[in-house]
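Exercise (ungraded).
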Amino acid sequence: MKSSKKFIIALVVLVILAATPAFAKSTYYFKGDQVFSIRAGVDFPGFISFYKDSERGSFTFKDTNLDLGGVASIAYQGFITERFALGGELGYVFNYCGGKLLTTVPLTAKLTYIPIQTGSFDLAASLNLGGAFVRFKESRYFAPYAAVTLTPSVYFNDNWGLGLESGLMLTWEFYTKNSNKYECSAFCGLIPVTLTLSYRH
Amino acid sequence: MKRNTLTLVAVAILLAIALCACNIDASEGIYSQVVTEPDDTNITISAYLGYNKDSSGNSHYYYLSNEGVFRYTVNSGDTIESSSNTIKELFASSKGNVIRKASYYNDGSAEGFLILTKNADLSTTLTYYAYDSTNDNFDSGTELEGYYDKLLVNGLFFGKKAYVDSESNTYYKYGVFYFDGSAVAETDIISTNVLEITAMESENYAFFDVTESSEHTFYVVDADSPSAAVLSATGDSSLYVGFQHISYNESDIYMLLDKTDSGSYAYKLTSTGVESWFTLNSTLEHENTPQSCSFVYDDKIYIKCSSFFDIYDLSEETVTSTQTNFASELRLAEITNIKAEDETNSPGVFIVGTDESFLYQVDLSASPSTASNFYL
């Protein structure tokens, strides 16, 4: 089995475990609590799929022609229940391709579910939805964007915590049937691995 | 209530962003460009110069880059993608002695390079360096007398040459010249008046737009028999961006390409002038930049456009476009020139010089056609 598949399975298992009642008994947060977080790290090329062009199909990992990239973001969220926090995130993602820069700037709403929250340890699953400015050479595009991430975090005191975050960032370049670029419609999936510094109060 | 309102606003913003997400200015699919973007080699190929095969069966490819003239050698039995291929610098470009243009000369008996350099005083010098096959090196060079501004890859050059009349007075002739293996010789594009010349080339052929006293004349010269132009016609002042010689049904066609705001067009140059021919499906890459970006194989003309290759079928008289097979590798490359590797022994195989991605070998005789990057 490829290491990437193992990684995805491990993520899924963690999410399922996190959702079980045994892990989800107590809560630490209250409605109205707030979390500000900064994350930075790397992103691995996952896939580029031309779902309207069967001749080209999908390119995975190294075949995407993308090199290892970087990702950084800032996020602010408020708790709307004891386990759900809602807010927004502004990110910056870059990858090199043939020596040229591909940049993605996602601006998203972020919903986070925290099934495990002990005060010193959180396990959070987040869903981001929004749009992303994508630029490569002279071409620009504003694309629908989604991300699913899982973040185990350790808190050193009441306010500050450090987590490791990973998941999938998905950008959708879509064209209608009337467009001469219809067959260029594509999904691009990137896999981030970042450190997340959080401040809560 | 306050929390519910906040949630509603957040969801509304999220939906608005997602629904408004749309194409701003992607001239082509961004991820389509990403998957086919060629590697940046940091080597700018100014021109692919030529090819020969030595007595041991090793293939030599000559090119001019931003650093000078080089020889890329593929040993007998290896391919262009082999890691054992070697590169040798033949002539280095340096400050005060910048190699602007070069031409590989091989007439069967003499072999060498014409090198046009720009000097520290901004003048230019054209020098012929003869190859010594015994020692695998070049002589110290023979400077060709004259003031030449431009040198084409096929060996034609233009500028002015000094002559001495019967009373020992020096005068100049302006025009197009060539090297005959020992000295500078004249074509019939010559005048004692100052000529303004622009040129485009296509393999052994070259198109010249010559302006004399505000009158334009178009010439086509075959570098294999350059003493007289094969065609001349009065022209207009349009600045064409492409030229291609086509041999079809035992006749010669001279194609000119033009890019305007309304589209890209092909014309035929004949002795009576320029005739409209066909309209390209796609848009030519360059405007007002003379560029050789087309080639011919199997009765089809392949023309490099911004992200497609347009194909004109000479028998069907139709235009189609492709970005698959060989074109998928090259469609995003900035092509500097294209030459047949060896039309006699390997028809359909072309060598392509690129601005950032080194050299490619295109094989149109393969099914499907391929484009492969030379190993670096």
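Further reading is listed at the end of the chapter. For now, observe: Chain A has a mean pLDDT of 90. The first strand of chain A starts at residue 34 and ends at 49.
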